[in-house]
Structure formats: C-alpha cells, structure tokens
Write a structure and sequence with these properties.
By secondary structure, the chain is mainly β. It is built from three helices and nine strands; from the N terminus they run αββββαβαββββ.
Amino acid sequence: MVAVDSFTELLDPPVYVVTAAADGQRAGCLVGFASQSSLSPVRFVVWLSKVNHTYRVARRARFLGVHLLRSDQHELAGLFGGETGDRVDKFARARWEPRGEGVPVLDDACAWFIGRVEEHADWGDHVGFCLTPVDAAAESLPRGSLLTLGDVTDLRPGHPAP
C-alpha cells in the first residue's frame, strides 16, 4: 500500500455540517469528505461514516442539508463534530429551521444547500450520498473565510472510527 499521508497533509478543504430528517428524527454531523462531482447536471457528494447517527437517519432521508461555516465558528463545528446524536439533541443547542422535506437548515451557516439524494456509493467505512441541489443560500465572503479541516483537528468524533 502506498502511503498518502504526505499528499493529504497538503490538503485543507472546507468542512461541512450535513443535516437530515426522516421518520420524525433529525440528525447532523461534521463532514470532511465532500465535493462537487458533476457540472451538468450539478451534483455534489457527501460521505458519511457508517458508525454515525446521521448516517442512519440520512439513509432514510430523501433530502440532505449541506452547510459551510465561517472560520470563527469552531464551537458550532464542535457541536456537530464532537457530539453524537445518539446521546445529544444537537438541534436543541443550535439555531435552525426546517426547510423543504423538514431538512434542518442552520441559521448561522454562511452558506447552505438542500440536495435531493440521487444514489448511494458504499466503498468502505463511509457511504457517499450523491445530491442534486434544489435550494440554496450563501453570504458573500472573502477567500480564506471558511472553516477548514485544519481548523478542526482538535475535535474528537462523537463516535470513534471503526
């Protein structure tokens, strides 16, 4: 196996808060694996850990919310990245509103979109959710204003990695 640590250490992508609602349950988590995956039609993929509470709710959801945070929102990232919905109602401690299909949208996110789940890709300990954006909003921010993976390396996941 080829070590890719020297490659991935150069990366500092934004992190995302992904939210879902299904069967009367809400869930949300901090995600480091996500990217636009197609231009036409526009598609975006978020990867959720199979051990995560959000994954279990998202598998039943038709739509997911994907949020970007500003670099000064470490505390909000900590709520969604360091707690588990199995034990904590994260939405009781965050400002949010239900949007289309009841998807929780975080009021304090600097940008968000709701995406219709088109398909899933299961290639290991994470499952990719391919989304088609159906609603979105964003603030105008200068480059370098987003919370990135390098900003949250101190967080410990609510669920340990498998």
